[in-house]
Amino acid sequence: MQLTGDRFTQETAAFGNDLVTLPNFPAEIRAPQGTLPGVSSFQVHFADHDILTAGDAPDVLVAMNPAALRANLGDLHHGATIIVDTHDFTARNLAKAGYQDNPLDGDTLDAYSLHTVDLTGMTVEAVKEFGLSRKDASRAKNMFALGLLSWMYGRPTDPTTTFLAKRFAKVPDIRDANVAAFKAGWNFGETTEAFAVQYEIKPAVMPPGTYRNITGNLALAYGLVAGGVQAGLPVFLGTYPITPASDILHELSKHKSFGVTTFQAEDEIAGVGAAIGASYAGHLGVTSTSGPGVALKSEAIGLAVMTELPLVVVDVQRGGPSTGLPTKTEQADLLQAMFGRNGEAPVPIVAPQSPGDCFAAAVEATRIAVTYRTPVLLLSDGYLANGSEPWRVPAVDELPVIDPDFATRTNHGEGDDAEFWPYLRDDETLARPWAIPGTPGLEHRIGGLEKGDGHGNISYDPANHDFMVRTRQAKVDRIADSIPLVEVDDPSGPDGQGAKVLVLGWGSTYGPIGAGVRRVRKAGYQVAQAHLRHLNPFPSNLGEVLKGYDKVLVPEMNLGQLSLLLRAKYLVDAVGYNHVRGLPLKATELAHAIGELVGQAEGIDIDLGVWGEPTQKEHI
């Protein structure tokens, strides 16, 4: 189903629609087939205009077995189309899915447009000329289903037939069988009277440029490569495989031509230790992981804070705690990123808002790490990592130039008494000099023990420790001088202050928040929206922005971590909207929560009615 969803996505991207996807699959390598925990799904939301989420309620569900029907039926709206492969609705499979009776019989699905199709049988018949066993032949039923859906929505077929020819080039029978199944599904849709409606979704209007469909992990890997190129630094990734971050390792390993070195360590601690060593040697050190790995790396990240070396720590967040939900999304590592080290160990935090934005966030994390000589935590999540959207490929001249400004000469004293002091600081950034080991005359020592100001020798002096702790914090605070001010989307007011309610988010909640805000505005009510990329430090005008609104709603896929930080720093009574389901927030539910808060602020009763529902011009 992941392959099927990916191919439909590629077809849709090639056609020019805007789209957002939501892959959803089990954590087990071979999950129990036919059971609810073993269901693998792929949701695609596409339209002829800009969309922000993978959608709340699908318009069409293709269910290959009873478990798939049962697991996804609750997400459908009444009137949705359900296409069911009847072949696997056996008594055994029905029991495994928890059905006592066959739901295809009787009136339990009368609220939907149900199409019962023997996908497996028709697939086997369509490919019988290639001499495959029935088991191998039936595996092509996903391509039959893809052909049917491609006909229903007028998707181009050439990208898929080309893909299949390339994917199975070494096994001609499998290649030809999949192509035949795909075409048979298309022909079935065109000739059968069961599907009387074919939908036309015109291409979306987008700014001019070169576009490609991209996932968050792929965009993040490209961003790290671009950051290294813009800084003139070789990229070194020291990592350990962990879901859902492993694709970053897989992708970066392909780019040796850009000076990228990948090292798969024996554990999380070794991975970050190697990355810190690479940074000490003058490379861009990167380590990628998820929440459990950040916990293991915390001591080493504290070492990078003390040594003040550039380091990018990518945390692709997943459901926790402990092993938790490896393949499900969450954004509950914010407080761990903020405080998850011993002592006062401030670390800048950057978070992308969409799959394509992972590229820009990675470049920004690189800029901060190199410019300010500090580890940076980049908080992506499973939804962004595996989801995809059309992404405009930026021109090289749109990317920032990042200057590592390596130390090349002594910086303290004169003549024969001249020395290199590794903890003298730049007046503007408070960054210490970065000297590549082996540079003549710049021999120096760093490590985990406290440094004396300037000279960097080990110091146990209480006053020096207090000063150095405050200096490291001040260095992170200085980053606010080089990041954009928070921008408020408030069309109701001339100065962005017309509404009484501000919805503030971070990370992957951008899509659901944007969709929810659109629906409230469409119903005729005023609401403002802002989104944070930089979570430490916050943009310098954030406090002023928050004070401009009567109420602030903070939607998060956690129990209120950003709300906690905002209350502590700005004394703002932020209202949390919190769900931790392992899935993205639902825009419709969020729209009603926004409407309720707007009603409280305005002193009126609000009923969003149909405005809280998705537009019929969108197809999921």
UniProtKB/TrEMBL annotation:
Pyruvate flavodoxin/ferredoxin oxidoreductase pyrimidine binding domain: residues covered: 232-450
Official protein name in the record: 2-oxoacid:acceptor oxidoreductase subunit alpha
Xref: SUPFAM superfamilies: Pyruvate-ferredoxin oxidoreductase, PFOR, domain III, Thiamin diphosphate-binding fold (THDP-binding), TK C-terminal domain-like
GO biological process: response to oxidative stress
The keyword Oxidoreductase appears for this protein: yes
Domain of life: Bacteria
Domain (Pyruvate/ketoisovalerate oxidoreductase catalytic) ranges: 14-185
Keywords: Oxidoreductase
GO molecular function: magnesium ion binding; oxidoreductase activity, acting on the aldehyde or oxo group of donors
Presence of keyword Oxidoreductase: yes
Any single Pfam family the record assigns to this protein: PFOR_II
